[in-house]
Design brief:
- The protein has about 170 residues and is mainly α.
- Helices cover about 40% and strands about 5% of the residues.
- Among the domains are: about 1-75, no CATH class; about 100-140, no CATH class.
- A hairpin with a 6-residue loop joins strand 1 (about 1-5) and strand 2 (about 10).
């Protein structure tokens, strides 16, 4: 038996999963989940998952977890091991279906991240774009980047003594 979140109705496997769902959603997104916890559990953020679970379980509706997740996802339960479509799942040749992946620039932003996280996401998207370009070049026989060629990744300038700038000199043994 599982529980339905008293705020959003999301099914949870057990009382601790419900406690974690409520607390994490409250901390990450605030709003309704945080308000519900503030109204129902004093100092909820100081509780361990089992302690919080004991406080909230009486206010949650008991549900059959498997039925609730199937209904919520609107996915019929698979009763056989067979597939109704023909394709090979193996990647024995080392290939990966990158052409089927979403373009990172097309993935919508959640709106819940700060400027530092936004910069990290932008950098990751650019790195993914470059990796895909390099992989496409290798697939069509185009030459890959030569050794020493600038690939746009950050590098450190060497100081006068050949060490990276800002590094401390090694101490000599006496």
């Amino acid at each position: 038996m599982g529980y339905s979140c008293p705020v959003c109705g999301a099914p949870q496997h057990d009382d601790e999963h419900l406690a974690n769902h409520l607390a994490m959603t409250a901390m990450l997104h605030g709003e309704d989940h945080e308000a519900w916890l503030d109204d129902h559990v004093a100092e909820w953020s100081e509780h361990t998952p089992p302690e919080l679970a004991a406080e909230i379980v009486d206010d949650a509706e008991e549900v059959d977890y498997d039925e609730a997740t199937d209904a919520r996802a609107d996915i019929p339960t698979e009763t056989t091991d067979s597939h109704d479509h023909a394709h090979d799942h193996s990647h024995a040749d080392g290939s990966h279906p990158t052409e089927e992946l979403a373009d990172p620039a097309e993935v919508p932003d959640s709106g819940f991240i700060d400027e530092a996280a936004e910069a990290a996401v932008a950098e990751a998207r650019e790195m993914t774009r470059k990796r895909r370009e390099n992989a496409a070049g290798e697939d069509d026989g185009s030459p890959t980047r030569a050794a020493g060629e600038d690939d746009g990744s950050p590098t450190r300038a060497a100081g006068e003594d050949g060490r990276p700038e800002g590094s401390a000199p090694e101490e000599e043994d006496a």
